Amino acid sequence: MIIDTLITARWIIPVEPDGVTLEHHALAIDRGRIADLLPTAEALVKYQPRRIERLEHHALIPGLVNAHTHAAMTLLRGVADDLPLMQWLQKHIWPLEQKWIGEAFVRDGVQLAMAEMIRGGVTCFNDMYFFPEVVAREAARAGMRAVVGMIVVDFPTAWATDADEYLRKGLALRDDYRHEPLITTVFAPHAPYTVSDEPLARIRTWSEELDCPVHIHLHESAEEIHRSGQQYGMRPLKRLDQLGLVGPHLIGVHMTQVEDGEIARLAEAGASVVHCPESNLKLASGFCPAAKLLAAGVNVALGTDGAASNNDLDLLGETRTAALLAKAVANDAAALPAHQALRMATLNGAAALGLAAETGSLTIGKAADVVAIGLEHIESLPIYNPISDLVYAAGRQQVTDVWVAGRQLLKKRELLTLDATGIREKTLIWRDKLIHHS
């Protein structure tokens, strides 16, 4: 049988079933989808590929899903470090954004972010930022899968003046990209402290009508909880629950301040949580009880947050941090094993974004979103368990090849759909602007 591509690998880790590693297997890809997964010897007899990739020292995994980003903030990487969340936001980040945010900033920042993410094995990112139409356009051009947030805040920015305009422009964007297979949209009210009840209630209605997720920062810091108590007389999650937003569409990001009753409510509602361990550590926001959430049945995904508070978009590194931190928080070395951390970085992320039927595991019929990671390096040897090696030892610099929907975006660490030299040059121009005029 003639197919587009056959990738043979030393190991394939499909993520479904959980914890399985297949040795000397091959992935058959045709018309952008996974056509077969079978032993290499059988594949070479059964298929006549137009292209064959032989990866003798590699593990193939599903593309990583970065479930929470502010991609264009790569241009603010390192601009205001070592500060608590509200001081960092209000004194540094928001003033800079007010001065510089525009289409050009978002375009160049997103290109830099996508170049970094692709080289780190990320094939899909969930973004929350201004000028989302620019994010959608650039991701489609680069061939990357993107979930673009229809952002809403109460206050005016360079993109919109009030909640009405944010929602109107967001819904127009959703309409514009409804036939683009790599681009989907979610509602993205920034946080309970930046969006009032009336727009949140409207988002709830639209979310139900359109079967569309709602992506929101939630219970990120103790200060957020305290302010909510003062202003509304209740914790943010309870307020969202009263507004009808706590359900299977909810994607709550950070969740570092969470009580047992709230965990039970999230599980009962079928909501998802995106854990951003490194950003939370850097801003001293607290610890998301990932193992406890997972044990309760909550779908927990992983995100990097923006590069201004992380300061990288390294989801493989985030996976390792999540696994290690969960053990310390739970006081249990068996909490969050490597295979579960890898699932959080792939299939759980896809599930949170409503994309589990399309990506997140190397399953026949799904889109061929595939990452190859070389494990022949000194730093990875010897290999007793490839999943353990990927989570606890390997680094993103070992990612060699990346495909999204069967199209190769990275080949032997070279970007194929983005201009790395041009991105570097534009980024340095932005650095000089921000240094001299901030």
Automatic annotation (TrEMBL):
Belongs to the metallo-dependent hydrolases superfamily. ATZ/TRZ family. Catalyzes the deamination of 5-methylthioadenosine and S-adenosyl-L-homocysteine into 5-methylthioinosine and S-inosyl-L-homocysteine, respectively. Is also able to deaminate adenosine. It comes from the Bacteria. Zn(2+) binds at residues 68, 70, 217, 305. Substrate binds at residues 97, 190, 220, 305. Its cofactor is Zn(2+). The keyword Zinc applies. It comes from Methylococcus capsulatus. HAMAP family: MTA_SAH_deamin (MF_01281). Residues 60-408 form the Amidohydrolase-related domain. Binds 1 zinc ion per subunit. The keyword Hydrolase applies. Keywords: Hydrolase, Metal-binding, Zinc. InterPro entries: Amidohydro-rel, Deaminase_MtaD/DadD, Metal-dep_hydrolase_composite, Metal_Hydrolase, MTA/SAH_deaminase. GO terms for molecular function: hydrolase activity. It catalyses: S-methyl-5'-thioadenosine + H2O + H(+) = S-methyl-5'-thioinosine + NH4(+); S-adenosyl-L-homocysteine + H2O + H(+) = S-inosyl-L-homocysteine + NH4(+). This is 5-methylthioadenosine/S-adenosylhomocysteine deaminase. It holds the Pfam family Amidohydro_1.
